[in-house]
């Protein structure tokens, strides 16, 4: 496996704790359009020159759209039903959880994605906002999963809970998504016991922590990718957030200045503050 980072000078490859710059021009778009990203990245590593770990990271994205899946974990289903009960929309989420067709929705264009170490935002017209830590699939133009990163699907729970048709407003706005710290490229699927952890720090104190494992997801990653690519083309490939199994309690909402840390090994830790 090779981790691919991005900074102001281009891509940086890391394998076994060693860092290299690709020997030839290489961009994220190349990885998403290549028939074999693992082979392409290994070749770039072999011919690369020694480098140091990048200090300031860009988001690991080129021209890819970011999509997301919802209600893939039981905890997410329960949270969605709780937030929507007053509007009578809770049953929608229970039906989606058990349905053959998954919930898939557009999340972000590249320019809306926050890089590691940069702020994510809260909607100005929302009073109940949470981060959603998600394993995120890198899917090439042919619909094949070739890598993974960490995603933060920022969500305005009060807006979505008011009416399920408000989902795009609750999910899609400037810097409502974060990706990073790298793109992990591997031919091997992640172990089912791979953990997803989140810690939110407020004024130096832990305000919330939670963990889950990808074994708790109801749907397979291949199934989610297959549905996303039905009657749809992604000439530059795409990212797909796979849903969350960690949801803060109803009494919790993010505040400006909070620090969000999402960890998925072996990808790393994605850190963002709240603007």
Describe the structure.
A hairpin with a 2-residue loop joins strand 2 (10-15) and strand 3. The two termini are 34 Å apart. The protein has helices spanning 28-33, 37-46, 74-84, 90-98, 157-162, 167-171, 221-228, and strands at residues 2-7, 10-15, 18-21, 49-51, 65-70, 103-108, 113-114, 129-130, 133-139, 145-153, 155-156, 177-185, 195-202, 205-213, 238-241, 259-264, 268-273. The protein has 2 domains: 2-51, no CATH class; 65-273, Fumarylacetoacetase-like, C-terminal domain (Fumarylacetoacetate hydrolase, domain 2), CATH 3.90.850. It is of the alpha+beta class. Strands 1, 2, 3, 4, 5, 6, 7, 9, 10, 12 and 15 form an 11-stranded mixed beta sheet that branches. Helices cover 20% and strands 35% of the residues. The chain is globular and about 55 Å long. The relative contact order is 0.21.
What attributes does this structure have?
Fumarylacetoacetate hydrolase, domain 2, 275 residues, alpha+beta, four-stranded antiparallel beta sheet, 20% helix, eleven-stranded mixed beta sheet, 17 strands, 2 domains
């Amino acid at each position: 496996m090779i981790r691919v980072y991005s900074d102001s000078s281009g891509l940086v490859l890391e394998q076994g704790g060693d860092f290299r710059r690709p020997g030839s021009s290489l961009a994220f778009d190349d990885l998403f359009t290549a028939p074999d990203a693992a082979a392409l990245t290994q070749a770039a590593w072999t011919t690369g020159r020694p480098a140091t770990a990048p200090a300031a990271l860009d988001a690991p994205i080129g021209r890819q759209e970011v999509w997301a899946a919802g209600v893939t974990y039981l905890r997410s289903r329960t949270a969605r039903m709780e937030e929507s009960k007053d509007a009578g929309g809770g049953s929608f989420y229970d039906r989606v959880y058990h349905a053959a067709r998954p919930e898939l929705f557009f999340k972000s264009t590249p320019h809306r994605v926050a890089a590691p170490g940069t702020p994510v935002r809260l909607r100005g017209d929302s009073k109940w906002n949470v981060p959603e830590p998600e394993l995120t699939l890198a899917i090439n133009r042919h619909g094949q999963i070739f890598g993974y990163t960490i995603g933060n699907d920022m969500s305005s729970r009060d807006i979505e809970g008011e009416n399920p048709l408000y989902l795009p407003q609750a999910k899609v706005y400037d810097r409502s998504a974060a990706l990073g710290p790298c793109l992990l490229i591997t031919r091997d699927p992640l172990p089912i016991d791979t953990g997803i952890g989140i810690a939110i720090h407020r004024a130096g104190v832990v305000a919330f922590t939670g963990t889950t494992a990808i074994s708790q997801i109801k749907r397979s990653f291949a199934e989610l990718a297959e549905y996303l690519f039905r009657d749809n083309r992604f000439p530059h490939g795409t990212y797909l957030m796979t849903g969350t199994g960690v949801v803060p309690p109803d009494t919790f909402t993010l505040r400006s200045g909070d620090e969000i840390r999402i960890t998925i090994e072996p990808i790393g830790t994605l850190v963002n503050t709240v603007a």
